[in-house]
Amino acid sequence: MSGYETLVGILTAHAALNQASKRKDFNESYFIAVDGNSLYARWIAPAINEVSKFGALVKGSGANSGNVAVPGQTWADMIKNASDIDSLYVSNKKNILVIGETTNSVYNGGASVEKTISDAKAYIAARRAAHKWEKIVLCGTIPRADKSSQAENQALNQRLLEVDARLRADTSLYDVWVDYRAYAPQWYTLAADGATAPFMAPGTCNVLSGKIDMIHPIGAARDAYADAIADGLRRSLEN
Predict the structure, then answer these.
(1) Strand partners, 170
(2) Residue 217 pairs with which residues in a beta bridge?
């Protein structure tokens, strides 16, 4: 190797080390707030900010975190209950808001695509008006299939996808979008039947009254759910 090649190698390695030293990371100056439905709440499993890589990020970095997610909440409910998320905000911290819903709005509330989008946008606008969030991490949906009619499950899953697509397209709403389906396709890809997904199986989906509930991932599938959010949080520091 020539002296020139050696010099180039040294300079390249130095540049890489310098870049790594400048890379942002979470620390005690951050507060991560979570709001959403049962997929995020402490209910059938630990709160999502205590799970897998999301939990490790919080514990390992020294960042603080709070979770006010409530099982069954819709976007409209989250607007009504907003005092809980607003009260989590810590004025001397860099506050990051992690939010996800849509599935209950569509499946439980029967909301149209337009109503669901309107509620989601109203919720986010109100949070921005209430506080200066450092970043907003907006999460998409996963498949769901708890209706008795396959045709209804198919129609509602298409509605979930349309809401996701339209919220994602409006980049003014968020700093980072979390796409569970893309991050963990082994669990969250919508099957050819238009309703089910791989996580809806024994050991990776909650059991209710002796039957798989077709809604709530557990075990490795829930770990992947938390990991997708952790990935989104990491990406939030890059923009």
Answers:
(1) none
(2) 205
Residue 17 pLDDT class (50, 70, 90 cuts): very low
Name the residue among 148, 236, 219 with its Cα closest to residue 184. 219
Integer-rounded Cα radius of gyration of the chain? 20
Place of tokens 């909301």: 111
CA angle 88, 90, 92 (to 5 degrees): 175
- Cα distances (angstroms) measured from residue 77 to each of 120, 189, 190: 11, 28, 27
pTM of the model: 0.90
Structure tokens at 141: 């949906």
Phi and psi angles of residue 181, each rounded to the nearest 5 degrees, phi first: -65, -40
Q: Which residues have a Cβ under 8 Å from the Cβ of 99 and sit 6 or more positions away?
A: 34, 35, 36, 78, 123, 124, 127, 136, 137, 138, 139
Phi, psi of 26, rounded to the nearest 5 degrees? -75, 150
Please state the rounded mean pLDDT for residues 105-133.
Answer: 98
Contacts with 209 (C-beta within 8 Å, 6 or more apart), sequence order: none
